[in-house]
């Protein structure tokens, strides 16, 4: 059943809207709205002047098309696909991605929020709100970005504090008791140098899927989300600016569940197929567990410095810290039988630093960068095999340390012919531990094993390309690039 929405919006703004006079409209050529992006690390550039495989969406674009998160965005973006494993989200660009989202693994398509790499896939579907734009870049990005990616990267850029005082409140209501309220305020705190902005979001709706089991939960896939973000922007005149950001998200919802097919791996009826009652309606389940849930708290802070050393050279520093607490229990077998229930308790924190020297001088455009990442991830997972009377417990940890140096130079021979050359050096170390214990209903240990392993990788990844532009303004890029994908120690 498609959702029907009734949108109610209240906008308060001191900004005047200037309309073109009727006679001026006749003399203005018809053209697409210009979208400014920063994906090339050359400062703000018009999207139509960027010779990259990129899609970009302004905040107004997202609002007009009803995009609330990256799951919605995939339907607006060629080549972008998204699948789920519980709360974890698997991103694919042009078919390149990974289905590994467990501790010790890293995504093949990366997500950056305000320049900070987001390493855990359980936060990919956090709501988009008060966003200036979203950029989707296809292909390896190791010579422009600190954290390497082999499939591409997605940049979420939040709206900046403004000198003018602005305020906005918007509300959506719909079926399934849906409510979504956003509020924002922005303006000068100590004019003209110190500006501030704050935005909040509250989103709720009832379950999309009904549970027919009287002993189980009422329904699945509901939502109770609260998010907030704030920023301070200190302007340094012609020299640049410093931006301090903070955000917090709390999600409390019932999990989804896999619906059993009643078939084994080769398509024959499974041993328990005759004992289960599986509803045929896709919006109905019949699960026995009474309280599956997702409880996620995601928080972070970052500082971004943009300092102009010369008229053509800018130093950029982005320091980010993130902290994640994630707890979930799900009915893994998805049936009315008490066969399997999985519990996961996840804690993760990360510290990253990206330093870039960006130069645009004459026909040359160069980016020189250094990157550092330190991540500590702990997970306590129990797979309760209730039908067998066993509990399989994994207490795992992963510590990642990564360094990188990267560079890219582009030379414009003419307005329609550019050559590009890039190089990246990566070093990464992972220390993975895992204590696995299988116990029976009495608590006695049936089996156990332990893993304690440290592995490191280093790699040099080149990139070269020739960029041409037709007389009609269409870009064509022929390039060869290589990227490092570190294995998961699981």
Description:
The chain has one domain: Maltoporin, Chain A. The model is unreliable at 1-32 (pLDDT under 50). The relative contact order is 0.12. The chain is globular, with a radius of gyration of 25 Å. The chain is mainly beta and 490 residues long. The chain starts with a strand and ends in a 9-residue tail after the last strand. The chain contains three helices and 26 strands. It has a 14-stranded antiparallel sheet, with no helix packed on it. Strands 4-9-10-7-8 form a five-stranded mixed sheet.
CATH-level-4 superfamily name: TonB-dependent receptor, beta-barrel domain
CATH arch. level architecture: Beta Barrel
SSE topology string: EHEEEHHEEEEEEEEEEEEEEEEEEEEEE
Task: Report the C-alpha radius of gyration, rounded.
Answer: 25 Å
Helix content: under 10%
End-to-end separation = 40 Å
Mean pLDDT: 87
Key descriptive features of the protein:
single chain; Maltoporin, Chain A; five-stranded mixed β-sheet; 3 helices; 26 strands; 490 residues; 14-stranded antiparallel β-sheet; globular; mainly beta
Blueprint of the fold:
Layout: E1 5-13, H1 22-27, E2 36-37, E3 45-46, E4 54-58, H2 59-64, H3 70-73, E5 80-85, E6 88-93, E7 109-113, E8 116-118, E9 131-138, E10 152-158, E11 166-174, E12 178-190, E13 194-205, E14 209-211, E15 219-220, E16 223-235, E17 240-253, E18 284-285, E19 293-310, E20 313-331, E21 340-361, E22 364-385, E23 390-414, E24 417-440, E25 445-469, E26 475-481
Parallel strand pairs: 7-10, 14-18
Antiparallel strand pairs: 1-11, 2-3, 4-9, 5-6, 7-8, 9-10, 11-12, 12-13, 13-16, 14-15, 16-17, 17-19, 19-20, 20-21, 21-22, 22-23, 23-24, 24-25, 25-26
């Amino acid at each position: 059943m498609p959702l029907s929405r009734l949108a109610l919006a209240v906008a308060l703004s001191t900004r005047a809207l200037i309309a073109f006079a009727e006679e001026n409209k006749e003399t203005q050529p018809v053209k697409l709205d210009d979208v400014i992006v920063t994906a090339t690390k050359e400062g703000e550039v018009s999207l139509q002047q960027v010779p990259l495989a990129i899609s970009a969406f302004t905040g107004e674009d997202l609002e007009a098309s009803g995009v609330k998160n990256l799951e919605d965005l995939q339907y607006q973006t060629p080549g972008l696909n998204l699948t789920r494993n519980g709360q974890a989200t698997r991103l694919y660009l042009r078919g390149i991605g990974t289905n590994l989202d467990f501790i010790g693994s890293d995504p093949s398509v990366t997500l950056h929020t305000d320049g900070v790499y987001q390493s855990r896939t359980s936060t990919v579907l956090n709501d988009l709100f008060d966003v200036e734009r979203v950029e989707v870049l296809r292909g390896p990005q190791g010579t422009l970005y600190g954290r390497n990616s082999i499939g591409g990267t997605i940049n979420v850029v939040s709206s900046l504090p403004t000198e003018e005082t602005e305020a906005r409140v918007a509300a959506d209501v719909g079926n399934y008791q849906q409510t979504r309220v956003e509020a924002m305020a922005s303006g000068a705190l100590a004019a003209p140098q110190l500006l501030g902005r704050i935005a909040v979001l509250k989103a709720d709706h009832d379950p999309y899927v009904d549970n027919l089991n009287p002993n189980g939960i009422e329904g699945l896939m509901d939502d109770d989300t609260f998010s907030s973000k704030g920023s301070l922007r200190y302007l340094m005149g012609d020299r640049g600016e410093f931006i301090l950001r903070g955000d917090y998200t709390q999600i409390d919802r019932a999990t989804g569940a896999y619906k059993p097919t009643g078939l084994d791996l080769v398509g024959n009826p499974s041993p328990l197929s005759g004992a289960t009652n599986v509803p045929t309606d896709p919006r109905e389940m019949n699960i026995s567990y009474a309280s599956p849930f997702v409880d996620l708290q995601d928080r972070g802070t970052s500082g971004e410095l943009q300092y102009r050393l010369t008229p053509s050279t800018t130093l950029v520093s982005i320091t980010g810290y993130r902290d994640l607490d994630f707890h979930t229990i799900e009915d893994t077998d998805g049936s009315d039988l008490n066969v399997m229930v999985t519990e996961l308790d996840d804690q993760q924190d990360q510290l990253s630093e990206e330093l870039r020297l960006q130069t645009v001088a004459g026909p040359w455009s160069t980016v020189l960068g250094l990157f550092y990442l330190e991540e500590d991830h702990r997970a306590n997972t129990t797979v309760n095999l209730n039908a067998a009377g066993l509990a399989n417990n994994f207490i795992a940890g992963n510590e990642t340390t990564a360094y990188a140096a990267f560079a890219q130079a582009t030379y414009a021979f003419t307005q329609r012919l550019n050559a590009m050359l890039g190089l990246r050096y990566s070093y990464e170390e992972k220390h993975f531990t895992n204590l696995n214990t299988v116990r029976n209903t009495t608590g006695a240990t049936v089996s156990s094993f332990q893993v304690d392993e440290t592995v490191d990788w280093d790699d040099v990844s080149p990139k070269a390309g020739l960029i041409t532009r037709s007389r009609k303004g269409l870009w064509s890029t022929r390039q060869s690039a290589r990227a490092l994908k570190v294995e998961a120690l699981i």
